[in-house]
Design a protein that fits this description.
Largest sheet of chain A: 7 strands, antiparallel
Helix content of chain A: 25-40%
Order of helices and strands of chain A: EHHEEHEHEEEEEEEHHEHEEHEEEEEH
Largest interface: A-B, 48 and 48 residues
Number of helices of chain A: 9
Mean pLDDT of chain A: 88
Oligomer: homodimer
Number of strands of chain A: 19
Low-confidence stretches of chain A: 1-7, 381-399
Strand content of chain A: 15-25%
């Protein structure tokens, strides 16, 4: 299994983050119980992938997918962990379930996406479910088989709606797994399905498409978690702010945004000073309605004009913008930036990988890798440094951040659960 | 991780068992759902270890421990699986739990037993519980520290009772984990503890000390499971019978036992004939009240007199005996018999190992190894042959019985749950 070891991972942590990690490791029983109590009140999302960035002095979640793909990048060593976690989830949601329908997104011609579907099929088959795939693309009208490199294939059929249920011929699933973010909104065929479990709920796409909502839930959670553990929440939570109703085609709009950027930078500078960090703080600016539209990265409000001139023009009219503290990456593999991605199923961290390739603060983050990137599965290492043992010095050991990363990924996934509750159309409006 | 691979495992399976395994692998979703539905009605034991034997034409559980030790023999690669399964268990039993008290047995001077306690402490600490150890030995009156080879230690304190609860000074556990089979009956200090969860329930020692009860529950389960899958339950279930109220110091008693032995042998011979098995069938005879007292192995009722003369004399008076079909071992590692041992936590198979050393049909089975035995952790192999994939031919692949063994271990653990329900003093008598 040598091939799954992380080669030459280099991470330089500075004082406060080292202390934070040591504190989290020493407090494992309390941390785990804290999460256990949270899950008595809140429902974990069926699955998630969280992209983290570790700047050496702070760690933060940069992107959370509630429709994660790239499952094929996890080490085969963690398949059984995935299966066990998914069993626990299904047992709670629909213990009698026999069939699971997976709704893929539209990248059915991409071999890596098909490999992802194959991994999901394997996991849920081992959970004890018959798995089939159905497309919701309006032009997908005929069953198609997609060949996989190992000789197996993936059959995708057009989704059928019959009164209050969706399914396939002779296949009525108890649960429907969305592997599709529904970026264009919830399609009619998936509306008002009260007899079946849609996982995650269809409104998750819109909820997660509003980054300020997740940022707010995450910030609140980190405050509580930080108070509980006696740590500064800033070490795990990027600062953010909102700038609403601005028209970037007007001088007043630009001025308002530049002022917001400078206000957030001032806050960041205060924290940098507190921890004697000499880096130049930056702020990213995105649309709160469409975070993938584009990103501006600024180290001063005065840079706005120049940055806008070099970027894709913003949409016209009144915009809602979200500003976030930029977190650089200090981890590298073979001299390339290495970004950890952590996967969860139900309340459990089940695996992850390092993605290498230059971290560009001004590029939208997704799970999709450009072709140049490599992936190194994160394995639950057999060494004592992997699963935390009290009294060990993790900093002195081989670099292994997995437990701390798992905690932050779970905080991030929990924040997504809060955001889903706050936006659930079946709940009373807040 | 090379050191955990099983070296030179040689297993020769014959036709029907090969077919059975293939059938189980092909039916994974149905098998897993079958278990899921069982667990809707029955409660899994918190943990178990099941010793299996595979004769090449049939597999059967030989021994089930509901107070398993030897956790240190599992591969470190499965620690996270153990933690996750134990998290799922604690979440259902006592989600608010902060403290876990482990009651060890009396082998506190044995380094291997201490290593077992260390492994349990590690697992439950990662679950999110503060773990301490308390002895119930009547002469254990002072706190003692036991050093471990890695420099850590295990502190064992005398158990305290305070009204309706047990605990330690400043430590009131929500759950008490028995790692002690309570062979001398339930001690007074553990009686009537209705405010705390005792895991497994204290009557488990007596229940599992009556092998015919587990054999009956297991046989019934295998019949149902066999019918469900369309397989002959005999392939996974040793035949057994009871011989009650016999005094082996009287000719009539010996005659009755010899006749029972011959009757069971006749049944086994019929099955051997059906499957064209040319081995000589044998029957083991044990006390149904004290299975560890000793074992007689007979290939004919006429051998009883001679066998008794060579064995430890039976207790006097009227005895209750359990007769069971002997299952030889056909698996070997480095030319030594290899016996698989499978561990479960909650409803999940979490790991196991092969124990090598001569299989003696006439020796009582426990988890304890004699000093000559070696252990080879069973790893959830990364290969496709490990976790079953449909359409693969497991017989053609590297020998890997782990999924089938996991199914049989779970049937066996489920049978223990049935037996515990049938003997629960809080239930109405049957």
């Amino acid at each position: 299994m040598e091939e799954y070891m992380v080669p030459h991972l280099a991470t330089t942590l500075t004082g406060p983050l080292n202390e934070l990690e040591q504190h989290i490791l020493d407090s494992t029983p309390a941390v785990e119980r804290w999460f256990r109590l949270e899950w008595m009140e809140h429902t974990p999302t069926l699955y998630s992938a969280v992209v983290l960035r570790n700047s050496g002095f702070k760690v933060g979640p940069m992107y959370v997918s509630l429709f994660p793909d790239c499952w094929q990048l996890l080490s085969p060593d963690v398949t059984q962990l995935c299966v066990q976690a998914a069993m626990a989830a299904i047992e709670k949601i629909c213990p009698e379930a026999q069939n699971l329908l997976i709704i893929p997104d539209d990248r059915l011609e991409e071999p890596s996406y098909l490999a992802n579907l194959q991994s999901l099929r394997k996991i849920f088959r081992l959970v004890g479910l018959n798995v089939r795939f159905a497309s919701i693309h309006p032009e997908f009208s005929q069953t198609r088989q997609y060949a996989l490199p190992d000789g197996a294939d993936i059959t995708v059929e057009p989704l059928l709606r019959d009164n209050n249920r969706v399914g396939l011929p002779h296949f009525s699933p108890c649960a429907v797994l969305l592997n599709n973010p529904l970026s264009n909104g919830i399609p009619g065929i998936l509306e008002d399905l009260f007899e079946q479990y849609i996982l995650p709920p269809p409104h998750a796409g819109v909820t997660m498409g509003t980054p300020s909502l997740h940022a707010r839930c995450y910030e609140e959670l980190c405050k509580r978690f930080g108070k509980f553990l006696g740590i500064d929440p800033w070490l795990i939570s990027p600062l953010y702010s909102k700038c609403e109703k601005v028209d970037l085609f007007t001088p007043a709009g630009k001025q308002a945004l530049a002022a917001s950027v400078d206000a957030l930078l001032a806050k960041i500078r205060r924290k940098y000073k507190e921890y004697r960090i000499t880096d130049t703080p930056v702020v990213s600016v995105r649309l709160d309605t469409d975070p993938l539209y584009g990103v501006l990265v600024l180290s001063s409000g005065s840079e706005l004009e120049t940055a806008m001139a070099q970027a894709k023009p913003p949409p016209e009219g009144s915009l809602s913008l979200v500003l976030q503290e930029g977190v650089h990456s200090c981890e590298s593999i073979d001299d390339m930036d290495a970004t950890p991605v952590v996967y969860t199923i139900d309340r459990y961290v089940v695996g992850g990988y390092y993605r290498t390739g230059k971290v560009e603060l001004n590029a939208p983050i997704t799970l999709n890798a450009d072709s140049a990137a490599s992936f190194y599965p994160l394995v639950f290492d057999a060494s004592v440094h992997q699963t935390p043992g009290s009294g060990k010095k993790p900093a002195a050991a081989a670099p292994n951040r997995f437990y701390m990363y798992g905690v932050i990924a779970r905080l991030s996934m929990l924040a997504a659960s809060y955001a889903l509750e706050a936006t659930d159309p079946q709940n009373e409006p807040l």
